[in-house]
Amino acid sequence: xxxxxxxxxxxxxxxxxxxxxxxxxxxxxxxxxxxxxxxxxxxxxxxxxxxxxxxxxxxxxxxxxxxxxxxxxxxxxxxxxxxxxxxxxxxxxxxxxxxxxxxxxxxxxxxxxxxxxxxxxxxxxxxxxxxxxxxxxxxxxxxxxxxxxxxxxxxxxxxxxxxxxxxxxxxxxxxxxxxxxxxxxxxxxxxxxxxxxxxxxxxxxxxxxxxxxxxxxxxxxxxxxxxxxxxxxxxxxxxxxxxxxxxxxxxxxxxxxxxxxxxxxxxxxxxxxxxxxxxxxxxxxxxxxxxxxxxxxxxxxxxxxxxxxxxxxxxxxxxx
Length: 320
Ligand code: NAD
Ligand code: UDP
Prior knowledge:
It is built from nine helices and 13 strands. By secondary structure, it is an alpha/beta fold. It has a domain at about 1-180 and about 215-240 and about 275-290: 3-Layer(aba) Sandwich (Rossmann fold), CATH 3.40.50.720. A seven-stranded parallel sheet has the order 3-2-1-4-5-6-11, with helices on both faces. Helix 3 (about 85-105) packs parallel to helix 4 (about 145-165) and helix 5 (about 185-195) packs across helix 9. The chain binds nicotinamide-adenine-dinucleotide (NAD) and uridine-5'-diphosphate (UDP). Uridine-5'-diphosphate (UDP) binds near residues 79, 202 and 211.
């Protein structure tokens, strides 16, 4: 029972490594650290059931030892990151997915693709069921991520239909928690870090746009169950409780006890106005639903960011 996880040094990838190790799997992690951090894996140093390869999966990868599963999580995921690395994002979603599908085929392994709610774009159907085809601007700045993931889904289904590869597609909705980078740029990490530093919380637009936030433990459990289920069509995994971004800011301020103000900044181009998963399929197929609400999840995440900020501040202090 050996599996390969790409993006293993990232936020979700590293939690998945832990989940599979805990279930008795041997895990090979692959990452090129473009947005990941060695910190997320350092607790695994010295373990014999974990092996790490530093590699850009947009280039082919050959493994001598057989794996029975490939989970492809490598990709910049924060809008700030994929706008900074547009070509790398397109490459890892297209070439990277092709390479990992090829590896899975050579090993006769099960393949799971980390897709995203961004395949629905700025949705005109709300909440979003898996049967909705989406509303994506292919030439807008976010298109580099959305279209790479849409291509990745099409490529995964082609390997499934043409080669008979055993595949899974998870459409992940906004997930947060421990091991996100403080400077990741996504809204939960931004708000918690700003609140802890008593800096203004940066509300893009008027904050009336909505998202549905899933705590990482729930997300990882959903993905783990999907990997073991017998189902090849896409499955939404996310928390259907929907909040405006202004409501999120209030929760963060209350849970951190911060007196930070709010500051309005321009809304990014093509920022989806609403997003909420229809999780009927996950409920029915996997017997899964999220257990951790937003307030509880933020409460669990705050100590991690407090610790990271203290570490960063200690490093920045001049040695006298
Ligand atoms: P992350 O940035 O923390 O992790 C991504 C990891 O992939 C990083 O460690 C990065 O270094 C690695 N990577 C990127 N390109 C690579 C390449 N070419 N070769 C090897 N490694 C590479 O982001 P995350 O939130 O953990 O996201 C993980 C996956 O889940 C991504 O595929 C993302 O699209 C998907 N996803 C995440 C969310 C979310 O809310 N966290 C939502 C939807 C989809
Ligand atoms: N956002 C915000 N302030 C921030 C970061 C993000 O108001 O400091 C908003 C962003 O415009 C979007 C929502 O929060 O409407 C979620 O943004 P995020 O980058 O976390 O992910 P997205 O869901 O857009 O991929």
